[in-house]
Each structure stands twice: as structure tokens, then as C-alpha cells.
Design a protein that fits this description.
mainly alpha; 2 domains; about 65% helix
């Protein structure tokens, strides 16, 4: 799966670069750039480059390889844990359901809240 994602991201980057090159060639080689047709073709090429370029950036962000400026500072300043503002649970044995599967984090937090209220 990792190789497939890498290959698809590489194809997206190449497509984005190709559309950028088409937009630049259209701007350089056209005799009158400010016509409706030339501006339309340039904007379509730039939009397609943007669409194909965002996909690898989002993948890198999800993998944690793309640092987002000021994101860690705000999370530490608010005093919230780094995991999307989730409440930190005390380390204990994993909470399992009747079939032995791990319980989702939101259910674990509700159970932790119920245990805190009991005397």
C-alpha cells in the first residue's frame, strides 16, 4: 500500500508540474496574452496544477512529514494534548468490549468520566 501511495503522489506531482509548464508556455509563447482565450487556458492550467498539487501535500500532512508552522505552539499554549484536543486518559489496561475488541477513544473517555463521579 505504501508503494501505491508513493506512486500516485509522484504522478500527481508530475501532473501538477506539467500543468504549470503549460501555463508558463501559454504565457510566454502567446502573441497577445490578455485575450479571453489565453487567460481562460492559463487559469484552467493553474487550477489543475493546484488540484493535483494539494493531494501530495495533504498526504504528507497526514503522515506527519509536513510541519505546519505554529500548530504545536498553539496546542501547548492551550494546555491541550497533541491528539486533536482529546482528553488524556490514565495509563491502564485496555478497555475491551464484549467481543474482545478495543473500545473507541470517545467511549473510553465517557467510561473514565463515569468512574471519576462514583465514590
Amino acid at each position: 500500500m505504501k508503494r501505491e501511495a508513493t506512486l500516485l503522489n509522484l504522478m500527481c506531482v508530475l501532473a501538477a508540474l506539467a500543468f504549470l509548464a503549460m501555463a508558463v508556455l501559454n504565457a510566454v509563447l502567446s502573441q497577445s496574452f490578455l485575450t479571453t482565450d489565453n487567460l481562460f487556458v492559463t487559469m484552467v492550467c493553474l487550477l489543475m496544477a493546484l488540484l493535483f498539487g494539494v493531494i501530495p501535500l495533504l498526504y504528507l500532512k497526514d503522515e506527519g512529514r509536513l510541519p505546519i508552522p505554529f500548530m504545536k505552539r498553539e496546542a501547548l499554549k492551550a494546555g491541550a494534548p497533541a491528539a486533536a484536543g482529546a482528553r488524556a486518559l490514565p495509563p491502564s489496561a485496555p478497555l475491551l468490549d464484549a467481543k474482545g475488541r478495543a473500545v473507541p477513544p470517545d467511549v473510553r473517555s465517557m467510561v473514565a468520566n463515569m468512574k471519576e463521579k462514583q465514590p
